[in-house]
Amino acid sequence: MTHHLVVRVIAKMLIPFIMLFALYVQFHGDFGPGGGFQAGVIFASAFILYALVFGVETAREVAPDWVVRTGIALGGLIYGGTGVVSLFKDGNYLDYSVLKADPVAGQHIGILVIELGVGITVASVMTAIFFAFAGRQRRG
Amino acid sequence: MIASVHFPVLQIILPLLLAPVCVLLRESRLAWFTALTASWAAFGIAVALLLDVLAGGPLSYAVGGWNAPWGIELRVDAANAFVLTIVAGIGAVVMIFARQSIEQEVGNARAYLFYASYLLCLAGLLGVTITGDAFNLFVFLEISSLSSYVLISLGKDRRALYAAYQYLILGTIGATFYLIGVGLLYQATGTLNMMDLAQRIEGQEGLRGLRVAFAFLTVGISLKLALFPLHLWLPNAYAYAPSAVTGFMAATATKVSVYVLLRVFFTIFGVEFSFDLMPLGEILMILAVAAMFVASTVAVFQNNVKRMLAYSSVAQVGYIVLGIGMASVTGVQAGILHLFNHALIKGGLFLAMGCIVYSIGSTHIRDLAGLGKRMPWTAAAFVAGGLGLIGIPMTAGFISKWYLVLAALEKGWWWVAVLILLSSLLAVLYIWKVVERMYFHSAGETGENVERAEAPLGLLVPTWILIGASIWFGIDTRLSAAAALEAAKTLLGVG
């Protein structure tokens, strides 16, 4: 699709806003609709749009395999690690109340951090799935 | 510092969180070492939990500080502590075996993905066993199933992909049925906690929704545990998966599903509902006996030894379910005891096959000729495991069949006892077929290929740990029989 000038220009304009919207959905998730899953998918859709318009190879340069793979593992670790932190603070696993002196603030921090983990993993997995499908014909 | 009160949750999160660490490490040795540490730590925790529970009664852990029935409860009692120990123990022993076997069968480049999936599968199985929440159980069931599809598809043979796909379709149907059952239960009772469910179902037995839920749960879980005739995914999956995966899954995955079945029948619905209101006892007995005979007969005609052992697993699930179907303390004890003994025997046998694959590269019965001379230790392990499968005295298989026959006689079902003995004769047939080939045929009529090709110690030691344990628990039954009795009493709510 690289020869469509209009598509290329519009995509370039849209991609930053898609990513910004993903971050809004991510960090506003505990007040309104949204959260890590939705944000992750929106964030990945920016990548997928980029790959569709400018080619999968170019997109792979932006997000090489090792980045995607690290993202998948890292998100899970952030989620689980939050639980381990509450274990070390004398709470039960994933008990966010102990993360801060004020339990409400603790719950707030906890949900924000685990949703970040979810967001990173979902965005990476979506990208990985897209790359896997898009790379199919190359290997034959 | 993290105190022992957190052991129930550490049991799951150690393997669960070290799985992504394996992905980040990438280097196959480091990943193996991480997975080894995780699985042995999980085994240690499981043993500590079992001792704790046998001494002091059930433990409960509120995840996230949210108490049951609102939050997710991890609940350890005699029944699941015993299953946890089996699963974690097999997981730890197979991990030693995995390094060399996986290096050869999967390759070092992709080995870290194997270790990550293996840990996820272990975490899922332990989670299914330890959770006290019906929906949480589904989540862990999916974690273990999805990772096991990956593990199976790593097999060298291209048919492994097809086998994994077949298992994926049938496993997903099973999990969906389970989920529909849980949904109906939730609709009828408004709770997901197992203890709470049990309380609310009492006195509501007439509700049609509950009966439908019961039917969905039974069929869904039966698919997962490969109860005849829902076993079609199992033979291919076991035959074409990498050796270490087959050893691990044959000894754990179906066993955990049996445990789920026990929980649903006895803890959630209770004996009266399951066996008096619903015709479960008769159905289970017919299917179990059919499994014992049909699957054993099919096993006799297999030429791929891994496939033969897989069919034998279907038959052995029949013995376990037969014990459960009797719904008496001795029957359930026999079922749980066979669950434990069969895990050791079949795990050991599949690891012995793994040694053979490592040295010879084939599981076809034709290529096993003269193996008694070429790989004496592996062949001896196979014979010892085979004797256990048949149920010769002084092996673990004898003990569980002894209890099973006792349970049948206690009920006055002497013909069931006769059927158990008759079906054991079929096991003699298929085991003998392999033994005869290994000891009474020389390798190659012209005499080539007769040099010794024994598997390395890294494979032999874990194989013999499992085989040795199956002999040990055939002679000294104090630990296994007592733990199984305690588990049966807990499930049936007596004593």
SSE map:
The complex is a heterodimer of chains A (140) and B (495).
Chain A lengths: L4 H23 L8 H19 L1 H7 L2 H24 L14 H32 L1 H4 L1
Helix pairs in contact in A: 1-2, 2-3, 2-5, 4-5
Chain B lengths: L6 H19 L2 H29 L2 E4 L10 E4 L1 H28 L2 H23 L3 H20 L5 H31 L4 H8 L6 H17 L9 H7 L2 H35 L2 H21 L4 H21 L3 H32 L10 H4 L1 H15 L5 H15 L3 H27 L16 H19 L2 H15 L3
Helix pairs in contact in B: 1-2, 1-4, 2-3, 2-4, 3-4, 3-10, 3-13, 3-18, 3-19, 4-5, 4-10, 5-6, 5-10, 6-8, 6-9, 7-10, 8-10, 9-10, 9-12, 10-12, 10-13, 11-12, 11-17, 12-13, 12-17, 13-15, 13-16, 13-18, 13-19, 15-17, 15-18, 16-17, 16-18
Percent of residues in β-strands of chain A = under 5%
Question: How would you sum up the major sheet of chain B?
Answer: 2 strands, antiparallel
Oligomer: heterodimer
Largest sheet of chain A: none
User: How many helices of chain A in DSSP terms?
Assistant: 6
The chain pair with the largest interface is: A-B, 21 and 16 residues
Distance from first to last alpha carbon of chain B:
37 Å
Radius of gyration of chain A: 18 Å
Query: How far is it from the N-terminal to the C-terminal residue of chain A, by CA?
Result: 22 Å
Beta content of chain B: under 5%
The strand count of chain A comes to: 0
Output the strand order for the largest sheet of chain B: 1-2
- Tell me how many strands of chain B there are: 2
What string, H for helix and E for strand, traces the elements of chain A in order? Answer: HHHHHH
Rounded average pLDDT of chain A: 88
General shape of chain A: elongated
Q: So how many helices of chain B?
A: 19
Structural class of chain B: mainly alpha
Order of helices and strands of chain B: HHEEHHHHHHHHHHHHHHHHH
- Structurally, the number of domains of chain A stands at 1
